[in-house]
Amino acid sequence: MYAYLDPAVRALLGTVRGTGRDAPASRQVFVNRNLRMDKVEVVGFDMDYTLAIYQLLHLEEVAFEMTAARLVERRGWPERLRELRYLPDFVIRGLVVDKLTGNLFKMDRHNHVGRAYHGLTPVPRDERYRLYRDERVALSSPRFAWIDTLFALPEGSLFAQVIQMLETPGDPLDYEKLFIDIRESMDLIHADGTLKARVKADLPHFILRDPELGPALHKLRSSGKRLFLLTNSHLDYTEAVMHHVLDGVLPEYPSWRNFFDAVITGSAKPGFFSSQSPFVELDAAGAAVAGEVHSLERGHTYSGGNRSDLERLLGVGGDRVLYVGDHIYGDILRSKKSSQWRTCLVIEELEREIDWLDQHRAALEEVAGLEDLRLRFDDEASGHRAALNSVERRIDRLPADDPSRPPLEAERQRMKRELDSLRAALRDANGRIQALQGEVEIGYNRYWGLTFKEGSENSRISEQIEDYACVYTSRASNFVFYSPMQYFRVLRQAMPHELSALRLAPWGEDHAAPAAGDRPSKATR
C-alpha cells in the first residue's frame, strides 16, 4: 500500500519506537478529536482511578460491606443486609438506576433501553417496552441516576441486591429512599475517612504500583511540559497514595512531588472548573498557611482554588492544557464545558474488553460479513416482494379463462419459492449473528454484555466518551508508548451515505464478504 512512496521514505516507516504502534492494543490511546501534543504545555492529572490504579474487586467489596453496615446502623434497614456479598459482574459503568421502578437498565446511544433488571431478575421485554419505549429517558431527570464512575459500582449492586432480598410480591420497597440511603451512606464512608483509612492501612492490597507510570510522567516532563496534580482527595490521603504509587520508581525523582510543578488537593471538582474559590496553601500537616497565594511553587501543596486562577498562576490556559481524569462528569465534561482544556479520559475497563474482543476476532469478523450479507438478503427480498405483488395484481385483473394466466401463475410460484429461499437464508443469517453476538457478549458479562456496546449500537457511555473526551485510554501510563510531541489524529469517519462508495463490488466467485476493517464507523476512531 506504500508503493507510491519514495523508497528512502518508505524505509523510515517503523524504524523509531515511541509512535504508539508498538503498544499492545489495550494500552493504546484512542482519538475522538485531533490532539497535537507539541502544542500542549501543561498536563494535569486526577489521582484516584487515574494515577492510582485500584485493585477494583478489593476496594469495591469493602465499600459494599461498609455501606450495607451503614444502612443497618444509621438508616434503620434490616440486619439481614449484613449477609449480602458484593456481585462484581452484576454492575458495569454506564448503567442507569430508575428510582421510580427500582430497575437497573442499560441504554444505547439513542437512549433505547436494551436490557433491564429488577433486583437480580431480568425485566420481561413487554414490561421494558412499556416502561421505556413510549417516552424518552432523560438522564437529567431526578428519577434517574447514572452509574458513570467505578466509584459508583458498589451502590448499583447494593441497590439491586437489597431489592432482591427484601421485596415481596405486592409489597414493593420505597426505591427512591433506598437509593438515597445507599448513596448518602457511601458518600459518607468516603467523606469521613472510614474507607480511606482502610485503604491506607494496606495500600498494596488496594492499589497497584504501575511501573510505567513514573517513566510516562518523566517522558512528558523531559519534553518541557509542566505537570500538575488536581485531586478531590485531601492531603493526608494524597500523600499516602502518591508515596505508594511513585516514590522510588525513578532515581531522578526521590519523592513523588518531584514529578509535579503544582499539587492541588481538596479541589472540590466539578465545582473547581466554574467556581471562584481561592487557593489556600497547606503546611506539611495539612493546616492552612495564612496569606494569599500569588504563585504555585514546586514542593508546596495547595487546596481548593478554581480553574481561572490556576491558568493565571501557571501562565497557560485554554487548549495548551491537557487534563487526564477518569470521571466523565467531574473531570471531563465539566472541564470541557467550562474551558478550552483538552481532555483525556482514563477508562480502566478498556484493557479487559479489548483483550476479550481480540480473542474473539474471528467471530466478530464473521458477524461483520454476515451483516453485509443480511443487507443483501433484505434488499433482494424487498425486490422480490414488490415484483410478486405486481404479478399478483396482474393476475387478479385477468379473466379466469385468459390464456396469459397460466404463465403468470407459473411466474408467481417461481417468485414465491425464491422469496421463501431468501427469507430462510435471512433467518439463518440472523440466527448465526445472534449466536455469535451472544457468544461474545454473554461470555464477557452474562448480565449486560459488552460495556461499550448495546446490541449493534454504541452504548450510552460510549457516546459520552466520544462527545467529551478528546482522547481516551486505559491508563495514564499509556503515554509512555508515545512521543511527547505525538499528533493524535482522528481517522476519517464515514457517514452511511459515504459507505456506498466504499463497499466492495457485488459478491461472486471472485469477491469475498467485506471484513470489519472495511466498514468505517465511529468504532474506527
Question: Could you walk me through the main structural features you see in this protein, from its secondary elements to its overall organization?
Answer:
The protein is α/β, with parallel strands linked by helices. The protein has 2 domains: 29-93 and 148-348 and 474-490, 3-Layer(aba) Sandwich (Rossmann fold); 355-469, Helix Hairpins. It has 16 helices and 20 strands. It has helices spanning 7-12, 56-75, 125-132, 153-166, 175-191, 194-201, 203-206, 213-222, 235-246, 307-314, 328-338, 349-359, 361-397, 405-444, 460-468, 496-502, and strands at 30-31, 35-36, 42-45, 53-54, 95-98, 103-107, 113-118, 121-122, 144-147, 207-208, 226-230, 262-265, 279-282, 301-304, 321-325, 342-346, 453-454, 457-458, 471-473, 487-488. The strands form 5 sheets. Strands 1-19-16-15-3-11-12-14-13 form a 9-stranded mixed beta sheet, with helices on both faces. The longest helix is centred in the last third of the chain and has 40 residues, at 405-444. Residues 504-525 have low confidence and may be disordered.
Task: Give a brief outline of the structure.
The protein has 525 residues and is of the alpha/beta class. It has helices at 7-12, 56-75, 125-132, 153-166, 175-191, 194-201, 203-206, 213-222, 235-246, 307-314, 328-338, 349-359, 361-397, 405-444, 460-468, 496-502; strands at residues 30-31, 35-36, 42-45, 53-54, 95-98, 103-107, 113-118, 121-122, 144-147, 207-208, 226-230, 262-265, 279-282, 301-304, 321-325, 342-346, 453-454, 457-458, 471-473, 487-488. The strands form five sheets. The chain has a nine-stranded mixed β-sheet with strand order 1-19-16-15-3-11-12-14-13, with helices on both faces. It has a five-stranded antiparallel β-sheet with strand order 8-7-6-5-9, with helices on both faces.
